[in-house]
Amino acid sequence: MLVKEQIPLIFGVPQEDFYAQLKAKKVFVAELRPALEGMKDVAKELIGCGVQPVVICDNMMAFCMERKLVSAVHIFSQGRKNDVALCRTGSLIAALCARAHRIPVVLHEGAMPREAKNADLLKIGGMKVTSSKIKTYVPLLEEVPMGLVGRKAGA
Amino acid sequence: MKESVLFWPVHLRGRTLYILDETKIPQRIVYLKVRHYHQAIDAVVTMKTRAFGQFLTVCYTFMLEMQKAEGLSVAAQMCLLERVATAFNRSRPTFPFEEVTGMVLGVARKVSGSPRFRQDFISAMNGFLEQGIRQKRYQRAQEAAALIKDGATVLTHCNVSGELPLVAEFCRKAKKKIRFLATETRPYFQGARLTAWELKREGFDVTLIPDNAAAKVMSDGDVDCVLVGSDRSAANGDFANKIGTYQIALLARHFGIPFYVLVQSSDKLNSGRQIPIEVRRDEEILCFAGRRLAPEGAAAFYPGFDVVPHRWVTKHIAIHAR
User: Is the pLDDT of residue A155 over 60?
Assistant: First the structure.
């Protein structure tokens, strides 16, 4: 789908109340490898709320921002400690790229992402992608400095 | 040195072109048998071959068609080459097909006055590929290896057509121990299927990570440098590569990590802004192996490439093709 207008980008797994607050009719949804919670769960919730999800791969966020297609970035935390929020891995990319492109980042409380084992990276949707002998590293969560976040809660 | 099967993925034997079907790796190493330029173009459009494989496919397809053109006049042979060039130029937008086909047509024009036009063209192209390209890729890999310190971890994205195992081999010969982090490179998984596979196959230390873990490994101090390839470059040093490279370059800049790129120099475009970005079909993200992964009603946006500004590149490691 060609996207020409600015729309919000969702990176992470929101809690249920997030969807009800969403005003946009179309949003980018990062797919969230390896479990694909974005492409599957978040997209399904959005469709149920009448919002058109436009799925992008996790490596496409900065491109969409650079092309001025993203109005705001929504990330989701599993908790906060001092000056950092604990978020689904990839949220730090979303936040840093947003800052570089002067796009607001909104932090919400999130649902827990699906647990992913290292070996899950060798598959997609249960189908084998590459050799099972390859070493993998799949960190589930990472710290996002609160300094990168412009606003907390409220979609 | 032993070459990865991806280093030279296209071969011309007699009147048949053998193109490595990169979509079948790592399950199988299969070559498509191509006897007509239309089949070669189909291999490009369906991404059975990509990156350097596309370059070789173009060069060898011209040679294949000339092998078959026995008995035609020089004018008819030149017409045929022009037809092949036009067809390639229309195949995919981001890779610089016009530059490559223009260069090959230039070789043809140079020898078109020869009474042995066909043979001289094929011989000139063979010389260009072996001395002009293969040797220069070795030199480029050696230059890249010299930049990597002993004990370093190198983050890479997508696949550099068999050149990373060569870089690693040069490091090994220099008694430098290095390891790689390879991003999986959605949606086609070139990092998972090609890069991690070929490095592991050649006995090098490689760990596969999701694309979304790039900042995590950088912020944890696990990356000493980034090394990527490129599909097209501009005169000012901007370059296009597989989607996701821009994001990694931005992160490397933020974390103060050197960012190296293997490029083919070109002065045809002034800046990366002029590089057209291919947008591919939604299904290539939403489905895998013919099976839909996303719920019905979900759409997708799939830009195939992005452009990294020259100011974010620590060093361009270049081949000057001509």
Answer: no
Residues of B labelled catalytic? 231
Residues B184, B125 share a domain: no
For chain B, percent of residues with pLDDT exceeding 70:
99
Q: Please count the structural domains in chain B.
A: 2
**CATH number of the domain that A14 lies in?**
3.40.50.10470
Q: B-contacting residues of A 44-73, CB under 8 Å?
A: 44, 47, 52-64, 66
The interface predicted TM-score of the complex, written ipTM, equals 0.96
**Residues 6 or more apart from B48 whose CB is under 8 A from it?**
B19, B21, B22, B23, B32, B42
Judge: B212–A64 Cβ closer than 8 Å, yes or no: no
* Interface touch B244/A53, C-beta < 8 Å: no
Contact B94, B277 (CB under 8 A): yes
Which chain B residues are Cβ-neighbours of A42 within 8 angstroms? none
Residues of B in contact with A34 (CB under 8 A): 210
Per-residue model confidence (pLDDT) at position B257: 98
List pLDDT tens digits, range A5-26.
Answer: 999 999 999 999 999 999 999 9
Residue at a domain's end among B135, B155, B184: B135
Q: Is A139 on the interface with B (CB under 8 A)?
A: yes
Nearest Cβ partner for B212 among A3, A89, A143: A89
C-alpha span between A111 and A79 (Å, rounded): 10
Mark yes or no for CB contact A89/B216 under 8 Å: yes
B299 closest CB neighbour out of A52, A61, A121: A52
> Structure pTM?
0.95
Size of interface A-B (CB pairs under 8 A): 179
Beta bridge pairs of residue B239: B233, B308
pLDDT in tens, A96-142: 999 999 999 999 999 988 888 888 999 999 999 999 999 999 999 99
Q: What is the CATH number of the domain that holds B100?
A: 1.20.120.420
The CA-atom distances, in angstroms, between B257 and each of B167, B182, B210, B251, B317 are 19, 16, 19, 8, 17
Of B187, B179, B190, B129, give the one whose Cα is nearest residue B155.
B179
Query: CB of B157 within 8 A of CB of B244?
Result: yes
- Cross-chain residue pair A96–B212, CB shorter than 8 Å: no
Q: What is the pLDDT of residue B320?
A: 67
